[in-house]
Amino acid sequence: MTAKPDPLIHPITRLSICGLLAAGADWVEFAALRDAAGISDSVLSKQSRVLEDAGYIEVRKGAVGRRPRTWFRLTPEGRQAVEGHLAWLAQLEEAVSASARDAQLAGPLPDDRDQPRRVLPPVLGSS
Amino acid sequence: MRDAERDLAALEPLELLRAQRARLADRMRPPWWYLTGVAVMYALVFAFPFASRFLGVSIWPFFAAALVVAVPLQWGWTRVTGMKMGFRNLSSPAPGRPARYAVVVVSLGAIVTEPLLIDRGLLVAAVVVAVLAVAAEAALQEVLLRGIRQELRGGGGAA
Question: Which of A3, A30, A93, A95 satisfies CB 3.0 to 4.6 Å to A88 for a cystine?
Fold first, then answer.
């Protein structure tokens, strides 16, 4: 897998949709995806159409009784793009964490002794 | 925008995605009826050696009865969670793999042990084995679901 940013899924809403679909479920239903992503019905509809047109997700529509049900899943192409984009973000996170650790270990520079220190905050969830 | 601030801004989506995955994983907490249904299904399976020995019933009615419980159970579970997880076999590397092995071991152990105990007249012991096996399978189902929640939180194969 190549770690590289994907401009199509870089916007946060599309990244959320693709990242949730890549989490491990085969198919995720519209309401579950909307609630987990914390977005509105209209935003999910609009962004999912963009992703479907790009061939990143597959949409299956059905009904339970009279209630329509829409299911989403990633295509192999979409999965590859998401994994590459997330790997790129993970590399970035690692780099930022490493620079924060280095800054803490180095301590204040002699010229900066009287200046307030500016250290990057630790990234949540990183070990 | 300074480089460090830009880098941190780029990380916000990763944090948000972790929180969203945790919300998705929380949907996989089983309601009472799901584990009860699983217990009923396994009770039917482990009752087969008794029915076969004392009533002369073949395996097919039990197989059909277990399916009658399993299919609506799975349908309801999919509807409640809003997710179709797909089948995970013994070789799937996802979390919960030891529990999948344990399900097979407990099932085979109970199905083999029960007829042996019944043949030796140890009916109470056979019933105890069946009851323990049902309880173990229900507990293992909970462990399997915990593994799925862990998988969803971790992002599956994605970073």
Answer: A3
